[in-house]
Amino acid sequence: MKILKFGGTSLANATKFLTVANIIEKNFKKEQVAVVLSAPENVTNSMIKIIEKIIEERDVSQNIHSVKSIFLDLIFDIYKATKNFSYKTIKKIIDEKFENLTSIFNGIRFLNQCPDNVRAKIVCCGELLSITIMDGILKSMSYNVTIIDPIENLVAQGDYLDSTIDIQTSKKKIRSINIPKNHIILMAGFIAGNKKKKLVVLGRNGSDYSAAILSVCLKGNVCEIWTDVDGIYTCDPKKVKNAKLLKSLSYKEAMEFSYFGAQVLHPKTIFPIKKFKIPCLIKNTKNPNAVGTMICENSQNVEILAKGIAYLNNITMFHVSGPGMNSMVAVASRVLSSMSLKKIRITLITQSSSEFNISFCTSQEYVKKIKNTLENEFQLEIKNKLLMPIKIIENLSILSVIGTRIGFQKNVFYKIFLALNNANIDIFSISQGSSKHSISIVIKENLIIPAINVVHNFLFNKNQIVEIFLIGVGGVGKTLLKQLNSQQYWLKTKNIDLKVCGIANSKKIFQDMNGIDLKNWKYNVLKSNELFNIKNLTCLPKKNALINPIIVDCTSDQEIANQYPKLLDHGYNIVTSNKKANTSSLKYYQEIRHSASRANKKFLYETNVGAGLPVIENLKNLLYSGDKIIHFRGILSGSLSFIFGKLEENVLLSEATKQAQKLGLTEPNPKDDLSGVDVARKLLILAREIGLKLELKDIEIKPILPENFNHITHAEDFMIKLRELDEIFDDKIKKAKKIGKTLRLVGIIKKEGQCQVKIDEIDEQDPLYAIKNGENALAFYSKYYQPIPLVLRGYGAGNDVTASGVFSDILRILS
């Protein structure tokens, strides 16, 4: 036999009632079924509100009419859709029920109170009418029906509003009923009878509990709970977009889910099906063909260590602590005993022997009661300063990760803490000892949604996620977006999900936390109404529970570079082609690194030197391995590499510079390249990586340009003025050739630590001799690499290689 239970959302209107009837019919064709029904959606809550309004002496006539209309509309619509439905008979039953309810409501108004036994009769009327209506539908379909009276046959103990069932007694009563095999069995959920056969109700999720008990009493082979979702998810799908449906849960896992707030099954429901090993299947009335979630003794896929995340809000933490706890006996037992006497449920408790501290969490509603209880219990200890005053932290939540024996899995612990650390979410307390099937963490309530999202992603998402916020859509930025767009699909096949969540130019920003369509990014940025302000980005990682948020700075803006420490502190990694941060003061240079270390974030800037060449990473690897740089020489400017190469081919300086400008190798004003300052910045970055504590002013620049060029600010004026140097440089190149050498602009770090940028005459034996056409070359003479240096060589300018270097840094965030 199969037991089917349908909740209120499955019975909300006539169409849904008829859908449920069809599901019952389909199952009955295979085996006998017993059906437990809840009240139609919102009916029970409406009844409770009516009682409250009457006690407050408010008019309830409209409320009563609304509830009655739910049933009258239901049966009228069913009558229109179904032949042979006993509309008049059932309407008469509904009319009589509400006449009786009206009399009861008048009695409440007269007494100005509602006794529990009366309240129980009112709140369960929806379940009884659901049975009446379904009985009519099934009989109209020519099925025989037996209705089990729960007041007569489910024997309860407890109060009128929250009773539990005596399973053994109830089992004897129900099994004594002679139910023909060709009958569909119906029973109202939520209802039972006490030993005096007075109606009582079964409390929260009472209809589920009724179905579980009926499954035991009728020896059901499965108990199906039909609702409005496909089953149980790894987390609330309303809060976590990529929550995954669970095919199965063990009874113990389901119990943990329920205990920590998930809308699964109430522990009271799980107990009988666990005890009698009856599988429970969660199914969707809207999608009856979905496989659902099976709750049974041993869940499938035991290799999946974490099954899901549940959470509780409105939590308060209490700290009992003090220096005298070391000599005090049974503090923990006194705390627990005092809570038990006041019937206060403790959700979570931790104890630290070294810090003389006991902490426990309860619902927010008990704060005053608990405070007074603890202060009375430990009055003498607090007075004598053996204990500190009771410390209370409010507005907390408990996040619980659930899975079989999850407490023994180090990998799960690691992922949870890594996720929360990535999101900059502080942990107030951790509890694992009370259950090997859950790990519980206490955090601020306002951070619970970001927390469950980020933990869920770390535990259940196979893809590595990166959320990119690109600032600067000039040549490098545009090229990077093109590269990202072309590689997104391929990277997904490698389980890497790169999402561009924000694109900003100097004025506007366009954002989409689900990922921007990179085919239309220009249009979206243009039409965006949101002004760009770098400071407004700081709140996004926590607000949106971002996994690996990255600021990608493709500008040369000092103001943006000045915000790096703040962005790191707020959870961003930073990838930058902007050299301003690394060439600012040494103090600021160190501040960025302190911020990255403190926030456990990455600050990557490979393209600051050598564009797409792997310079910084290789240099760091050398130093980490114990190597020491003795001497360095390098061509660090792609534009100047191109220009000096052309000089060697007898092209005049002004013409070579013009060609470099057309190819996009120079800065907007080529004066910035020829001044040597850009090379000095790159040399400073390398020097600082080596460990030299230098400022930009410490780099000696032997100028290419005479002093009378300093006052020129406009690029056009500079290019005209540059012609004056054509003959001078032509003469220099010819003199160098006569002695078998050529000219190159070289950055030098000497053994003693002095740094210099100058035009150097170099011969064919020098590794820099053949470098031209936009190439960079860096020769590191070190303890390991001498007399032959380690040489890194390749194109050091251009949007493609620079964007590629930025792209590589983005991927390194995942390493």
UniProtKB/TrEMBL annotation:
Catalysed reaction, written as an equation: L-homoserine + NAD(+) = L-aspartate 4-semialdehyde + NADH + H(+); L-aspartate + ATP = 4-phospho-L-aspartate + ADP; L-homoserine + NADP(+) = L-aspartate 4-semialdehyde + NADPH + H(+)
Record's protein name: Bifunctional aspartokinase/homoserine dehydrogenase
Keyword Protease belongs to the record: no
InterPro entries: AceGlu_kinase-like_sf (IPR036393), ACT-like_dom_sf (IPR045865), ACT_Aspartokinase (IPR054352), AK-HD (IPR049638), AK-HSDH_N (IPR041743), Asp/Glu/Uridylate_kinase (IPR001048), Asp/hSer_DH_NAD-bd (IPR005106), Asp_kinase (IPR001341)
Physiological role: Bifunctional aspartate kinase and homoserine dehydrogenase that catalyzes the first and the third steps toward the synthesis of lysine, methionine and threonine from aspartate.
GO molecular function, one term: NADP binding
GO biological process, one term: lysine biosynthetic process via diaminopimelate
Residue span(s) of domain Aspartate/glutamate/uridylate kinase: 2-284
Residues annotated as domain Aspartate/homoserine dehydrogenase NAD-binding: 472-606
SUPFAM superfamilies linked: ACT-like, Carbamate kinase-like, Glyceraldehyde-3-phosphate dehydrogenase-like, C-terminal domain, NAD(P)-binding Rossmann-fold domains
Native species: Buchnera aphidicola subsp. Schlechtendalia chinensis
Assembly and interaction partners: Homotetramer.
The enzyme's E.C. designation: 2.7.2.4, 1.1.1.3
Keywords: Amino-acid biosynthesis, ATP-binding, Kinase, Lysine biosynthesis, Metal-binding, Methionine biosynthesis, Multifunctional enzyme, NAD, NADP, Nucleotide-binding, Oxidoreductase, Sodium, Threonine biosynthesis, Transferase
Family classification: In the N-terminal section; belongs to the aspartokinase family. In the C-terminal section; belongs to the homoserine dehydrogenase family.
Pathway annotation: Amino-acid biosynthesis; L-methionine biosynthesis via de novo pathway; L-homoserine from L-aspartate: step 1/3; Amino-acid biosynthesis; L-threonine biosynthesis; L-threonine from L-aspartate: step 3/5; Amino-acid biosynthesis; L-methionine biosynthesis via de novo pathway; L-homoserine from L-aspartate: step 3/3; Amino-acid biosynthesis; L-threonine biosynthesis; L-threonine from L-aspartate: step 1/5
The keyword Kinase is assigned to this record: yes
Domain Homoserine dehydrogenase catalytic: start-end pairs: 614-811
Pfam families: AA_kinase (PF00696), ACT_9 (PF22468), Homoserine_dh (PF00742), NAD_binding_3 (PF03447)
Domain Aspartokinase ACT: 320-378, 399-457
PROSITE patterns: ASPARTOKINASE (PS00324), HOMOSER_DHGENASE (PS01042)
Top-level taxon in the UniProt lineage: Bacteria
Cofactor(s) needed by this chain: a metal cation
